[in-house]
Amino acid sequence: MAPPIIEFDATLKDLYQLDSGKLYANFTHPFGQVQYSRGLPTSSKYTFQDPRNNSENVEAARIFIHVVAQFFTMVAGAINVVMFDIDMPGLTQGPDLQARADTEAVLGQIARQQKPYVKHVQKSSEILLPPDAIISSVGPIDCLEHLPSLVSFDAHYRALSKRELALSGVPTPRTDVIDTILDALQVQDPQLRAAEVRRMLEPVEQKPVPFVVKLPQSSAGRGTFIVRNQHDRYETVNELGVEVDRMLCKLTDANTHLRPVCLLVQEMVAGSALAISMFVSKAGDALVTSCCDQEIGPQGSYSGGHIDYSQQPRLKDEYTPIANQVAAYMHRLGYHGPIGFDAMTGPQGEHLVIDMNARVTGSFALGLLKGFFRTARGFNNVSVMIQMSLIIGLDEFRSRFSDEIDEGRLVIGGWCRKTTRKSCMAVILVAGEEQESMVALAKRIKALDKPDPSDEPLNEDI
């Protein structure tokens, strides 16, 4: 039996309702400290935080960005997608051709009429748009700002800002916003900067536990700190001391108007969050595509999501009112496109938005695959898993799980071999008629996700 062809119920091309020749897309996620490739420098205007990447291997961070870009590209539809190459390791020049082959293997599963047209580039100057074409980005990056954009980069940056959300009027947990009082000239003085770090951290040191601290531009939980006790407070203050100083150093005349330097100290809400995916039209209308449970890793970072298709009608009805409020807020900012937000239920039964990402998110594809998984194959439960260190290659993985792939209960959403290692990183979708069979398959895959013995730190400076 041959693996099934993947066809989405709708793609971004359908949702944007734009001519495929006019719409280009780039799904390379904005980054803070990690330089993705030699040809794609970190941004100085549109700054982001990823504090917990500091101790991670540089190559692993790059490949994670690449695998996520593959997965997001799957839902693009038959439009042009610009994908930045990963560099070969060390001093070797040129792109990693194996990463290109991995990308083609992933996208080759998609129905021909929905398959994106991928153009690989090493630097932004290689992106040449035809007249009247516009580009949609997963987030603003300085080197792409010269291109005509579907949404202005300033508007998109504000739509991604946790500070803007806290002040938006959308229902959120009670939040104190601690803005810097320094300007772009003052942050160049180390003594003023050190005093400002102490001032901004004072509420974190004094607020009664429990509470949550957030950085303004971070994702996947990496910039969120949960303070439950004094030990958490000590660890959080130490980590934020470095990060606040780093944010201050990046304040410039070019980005002061975006208010990129702040901390958000937020009331903790008990319970679990539901991940709502939707598309906001140019007119500001909300189309809720899915309501998913989230899987959170040991450090509070996002590691996957789960959808129960039988519960979608009820959940969409319940969360459409808060989705409409989010859509109205996005429309005011000038953003339209895919959005994911996390919602919790407050003490009075009200829905509260605790986080928002104005872009394609990890669970966005699940709502668009109901026809593939449930209607055609009877799989009611589907999870997306992010596997960081699979100890087998793509061919062996396909061979070992050939029956599940042929049945359509396992879909490879992203795959990339670590260039200097024996392990691979992947996004995997697993499905089952009920949750138990889905979990059993997921456990078999997780058993192959182990640290590679050769996974030594990479001494690479670019």
From TrEMBL:
Which keywords does the record carry? ATP-binding, Nucleotide-binding
- Asked whether the keyword Nucleotide-binding is assigned, the reply is yes
The record's annotation in Pfam families points to: ATP-grasp_3
Query: Mind telling me which PROSITE patterns this protein's record contains?
Result: ATP_GRASP
What's a Gene Ontology MF term here?
Answer: metal ion binding
Residue limits of the ATP-grasp domain? Answer: 162-390
Record bears the keyword Isomerase: no
- What is the superkingdom listed in this entry's lineage? Eukaryota
Q: What is this protein called?
A: ATP-grasp domain-containing protein
